[in-house]
Amino acid sequence: MKTRKKQKVIIGTLVAIILGMCVGYAALSQILTITGTSGISGDFNIEFTKIDENTMVNAKTITKDGIGSTTANFTVDLEKPGSSAIYDLTVENKGTIDAILTSIEGVDESNNKEPVDITYTVTGIQERASLNAGEQEKFQVKVVWNASSTSVPTTSKSLTLKLNYEQKIFDGSISGIASEILIDEKLESDVPSGGSGLVAIGNNGEITTSITPREYRYIGPNPDNYIQFNNELWRIIGIFDGQLKIIKKDSIGSMGWNSTNVNDWTGATLQTYLNGEYYAGISSDNQMKISDYLWKLGAAKSYTSAANGLAQHFYNYERGSDAYDEIRPREWTGKITLMYPSDYGFATSGGTTTNRTKCLAKELYGWDGVSDCKNNSWLYDSISSQWTLTSYASSNIGVFIVNNGGYVSHSSVNNQMGVRPVLYLTSNTEITSGIGIETKPYILK
Predict the structure, then answer these.
(1) What pLDDT digit, counting tens, does each position of 10-23 carry?
(2) In the chain, what are the domain boundaries?
(3) How many CA atoms are closer than 13 Å to the CA of 237, on its beta-carbon side?
(4) What are the strands, taking DSSP E only, across 230-353?
(5) Sheet with 84-93: strands ordered across
(6) Integer Cα distance of 437 and 235 in angstroms
(7) pTM for the complete prediction?
(8) SS3 helix, strand, coil % of the chain, rounded to 5?
(9) How many Cα neighbours within 13 Å face the side chain of 207?
């Protein structure tokens, strides 16, 4: 696989200086600076946008200024041993260039310097975290005067935090297997609440750092997962067993699932249309990129409580053996289908009030009342209700939908709902250019 060279840039330097320590207090002056870069195509504009007091113990903020610029300054008095100050810092990428944090330097080295009674920690930001264009990152700075200190510091102490970022841009020079490139270039160890990105998913739907995850999924309100397919915009749901699962960006219109009033996908009129007339409208080159895939057709019987209606429950139903009757097929091999209810659920990053963990512990049937969950799932469409592939096992005619109110329920197969085709690309499909945003989607070879 050919890969481009990686361009490393330092976009963040934080310098904290403890000055003027004397009997009774220690004055801590912190200077945070983000430096610019050159030689990168795009608008580079990263600023500190907030410095908020979190927890102050025998500590007082003296000055705070520079918010909304590349340098922020604040000074805090630590009154005596045992004093501490915690600040929430927010840095925002207001430009058009994405960045990945490759390393954090200087904290340990600085803390080992005299006076050792003053310690300094940074939490909430970690290596491999992204700061994508339009997103912000919150982290904490904590300074503590050791409570067991018996001496009064009389010298200054310099504390330095250096954030080393690596700019990753698909600039048209790359060529390689799509799934491998995206995992190598875009995978994040975590995505903050309200953020967007590609993450590894564990056996219970949680974000994991395992080297052998269950799958990879794009989560958040607007991840960089746009891809051009058949001269149209599609989006990547995730990577499953080395294959990209993609969904058309927009609905192709409202249609019935099956005009014969039976929730059997293998004979459904929508299945026949998608794999017949619709498939025929795809160019021959792009038809060759579509995988013949074994789609699981498990149904769900119960789904209205936290005991049976979570995203992980639907994931299990979809791959399970339940159906309306014994003759209903539990799987089907073909090219084009629809998303699963679990795809919608697992696509959320949660928000500030209800984070992703809490969203995944909330039944999908109740997501209309949890804005943090539905609004931070990029698969949510507030305009149109959407069909899914999964049938309702307790009904002969019921199929699950993602309602435009944000909740998952079921509807009769002869009703008209939005249709967003879903398919798998073959495992050898290559990306040649693009950065995954709507105006510059990934281009396939």
Answers:
(1) 333 333 333 322 22
(2) 7-167, 176-433
(3) 24
(4) 232-240, 243-248, 254-255, 293-296, 331-334, 336-337
(5) 46-57, 84-93, 136-145, 118-123
(6) 10
(7) 0.65
(8) 15, 40, 45
(9) 23
